[in-house]
Design goal:
It contains 16 helices and no strands. The chain is an all-alpha fold and 416 residues long. The longest helix has 39 residues. The protein is globular, with a radius of gyration of 21 Å.
Length: 416
């Protein structure tokens, strides 16, 4: 009877938190859309991922203004509060509701003004915060009280569900829970994480719809891509691991004192200056990734744009983090990986012509993402879900993320 009671409490929490996490993610999506309309007078879609129609002056000033605003928010917020890492939240460190709501809203707002950082951290933090609130409610209502291990699982699953509700990717949200936060796979963990992510996806889709996040025209993958996978995936693992280290260093150097009033506007100015002639740099990286996916032929101009997109997105995102900004690195990693994937694909098709370049973008993104996030299953299923790929993509994706992670693990073992 005791086990039955625990299971009932966890089942109720799973359903309720799926709804709440999905609604929270939908609300953050509305905040992003509203910010983009105010600053750029445009609505983001997979066909128009950034504000191409905005004037160069608009693209210059918007990230600066956004950086000025969030620098004030983060400075005064951090006088009494430090953002709680999700891993710490899973272990029980409290996420104050007011400060956390302010923190996640600032992240999404800055992305909406064109700031170069991922927006996926905000809905994950919001999901974890709501899960902690539910746990506290359960402690007051005896029959909803959760066992200690179930509390960890609920918070991890809610973070993953928040992700799923934004990107309409239930398997990816569950994998984020299992691979990165909970770090344990058993029947209960799979049931809770998948159920919650699926519910959050359905709720989030009320706002975002069911269309793919990235537009990929050719979704049928050929076995002729396997040589590319075998050669390129280890390289992506090497480069992705190095970029993960750079992210770690930037995070360690993140400005948290009064200097943020200078460093964040400088990061915004850098982003805006690049956006004057390369608008794809703005936001979470969707523009750079879609640009890479849209390349259909080899040309000097395409090579130049892809190279610039790869280095510019990586450097500007690091500048944002070290300058005092908070946000995700997942979608910027997709942008970098897709750009590099197409560049290497251009070389590959010289020897084996016939494969669409856009597929090299998808593969490169997954391989690079696996290394930067240290989550092969999440990386594989994220590209599969957000691009609405055919099942034929699973073989090259699966083999590639495995090879990428093998190199990444070897590098980390060598460093240790």
């Amino acid at each position: 009877m005791e086990k039955s009671s625990d299971s009932c409490a966890l089942a109720i929490a799973t359903i309720v938190m799926g709804i709440i996490a999905g609604a929270s993610s939908g609300l953050l999506s509305i905040v992003l859309d509203a910010t983009e309309r105010v600053f750029f007078h445009f609505t983001e879609t997979n066909a128009i991922p950034v504000a191409f129609s905005a004037t160069p002056l608009n693209r210059l000033l918007a990230p600066i203004i956004g950086a000025l605003i969030v620098s004030v928010v983060w400075y005064f917020m951090q006088l009494h509060y430090r953002p709680v890492k999700l891993s710490k939240a899973v272990d029980g460190e409290k996420m104050p509701m007011g400060a956390t709501i302010m923190h996640v809203t600032a992240q999404v707002f800055y992305v909406g003004t064109g700031g170069s950082i991922g927006r996926e951290l905000a809905p994950r933090e919001a999901g974890a915060m709501w899960a902690q609130s539910w746990i506290r409610l359960g402690d007051r209502i005896g029959w909803l009280k959760l066992a200690p291990e179930d509390r960890r699982l609920l918070i991890a699953a809610a973070a993953g569900a928040g992700f799923a509700g934004v990107y309409i990717a239930p398997i990816t949200g569950a994998m984020f829970c299992l691979e990165i936060l909970y770090k344990k796979i058993d029947k209960k963990a799979v049931i809770v994480s998948l159920t919650m992510a699926a519910i959050a996806t359905m709720v989030g889709a009320i706002v975002k719809g069911w269309q793919p996040y990235y537009l990929v025209a050719s979704r049928q993958f050929s076995l002729r891509l396997i040589p590319f996978v075998v050669i390129v995936a280890p390289l992506m693992g090497f480069l992705g691991t190095w970029y993960k280290r750079l992210i770690g260093r930037a995070s360690a150097l993140r400005v948290k004192d009064r200097r943020i009033f200078i460093t964040m506007p400088l990061a915004g100015a850098l982003t805006g200056a690049v956006a004057c002639f390369f608008p794809e740099i703005m936001g979470n990286g969707r523009g750079v990734a879609q640009m890479a996916i849209n390349v259909t032929s080899v040309s000097h101009s395409a090579v130049a744009l892809l190279l610039f997109g790869f280095f510019a997105k990586g450097l500007v995102t690091l500048a944002t983090i070290s300058g005092g900004g908070y946000g995700g690195t997942l979608t910027p990693s997709i942008a970098m990986g897709s750009s590099l994937g197409v560049l290497l694909g251009m070389i590959f098709i010289q020897a084996m012509p016939g494969e669409p370049l856009m597929q090299f973008a998808v593969l490169g993104a997954a391989f690079f993402l696996a290394a930067t996030q240290q989550a092969p299953l999440m990386a594989m299923f994220m590209l599969f879900e957000v691009c609405h790929l055919n099942f034929s993509a699973l073989l090259p994706l699966g083999l590639g993320v495995a090879l990428s992670m093998a190199i990444s693990n070897w590098m980390q073992a060598q460093k240790a």
